[in-house]
Every structure is written in C-alpha cells, then in structure tokens.
Design a protein that fits this description.
single chain, about 130 residues, binds zinc ion, mainly beta, 8-stranded mixed beta sheet, Metal Binding Protein, Guanine Nucleotide Exchange Factor, Chain A
Length: about 130
C-alpha cells in the first residue's frame, strides 16, 4: 500500500498517510486563500485510522460560512499547516497536498467555491464544479 509523508517546512511536524486519499479537492474560498497565501487551497482527505502524526503542533479553529468548525494543525516553529480536521466528519483528516511535496500526487476531483476563483486560473483536470 502506498505510504506518503507530509512534512512542514522545518521538518519537525510529520504526518504519514497510508493508502490513497478518499477525496481530493481544491477550494477557492477566501479563507483558504488567506491560510495558504495562494490563489486556492488543495487538500486530500484520509480516514483518521490511516494517518499517523509525529511532532508538535499548534491548533487554530475557525468556523466556516456554513457553521462547520475546522481545526488547522500547524507547526509552531515554521507555521506550515500539515493537517486539519472537520467537526462534521470526525473520522477524517485533511492534508494540504503541498505538504506531500509530490508533483505526481493525483489531481483533485472536486472544485468548490468557484465563485471566488481567480479568473486567470485555468483548470484542466476533469472534476466536479461547485460555486
Ligand atoms: Zn515546521
Ligand atoms: Zn476553502
């Protein structure tokens, strides 16, 4: 079974995920833009029993527009978010795919909050689209 390591910028916070993700999505919402410093967020979900975390992390909880609590877990030394959890799906862990630093990572299959999409961004992968 494929095993992948997601690591923060300084390397002290590490997450190992076994097997393929159950969902890969990109999100254009403004909160993801602020969190990532990029034009969109991209993340892969794994069931929590397939994920192991080593290292220290700080936690930041924010409530989404839909009223869902999301808790972001990031390295206190370098600030990189390595995983987050969602109150509505407690058995799932989401990992920003950039933390895997793997250009061959499978593409997203769902794109959400396209109403906030930067208009120059062309999406070539085949996926579901949601405003
Ligand atoms: Zn770090
Ligand atoms: Zn978002």
């Amino acid at each position: 079974m494929a095993t992948r390591d997601a690591v923060c910028s300084c390397g002290q916070l590490q997450l190992t995920a076994e097997g393929d993700p159950i969902r890969i999505s990109m999100c254009h919402c403004l909160a993801c833009q602020r969190r990532t410093g990029s034009a969109f967020g991209i993340q892969a979900r794994f069931t929590s029993d397939r994920v192991r975390v080593v290292g220290r992390h700080s936690d930041y909880m924010r409530t989404s527009d839909e009223g869902e609590e999301r808790t972001f877990h990031f390295c206190p030394a370098c600030g990189a978010t390595v995983f987050y959890t969602l109150s509505t799906v407690p058995d799932v862990v989401a990992v920003p795919t950039g933390a895997f630093a793997e250009p061959s990572f499978p593409p997203p299959t769902v794109s959400v909050f396209e109403s906030r999409r930067h208009p120059w961004l062309a999406m070539t992968a085949t996926m579901e689209h949601h405003d």
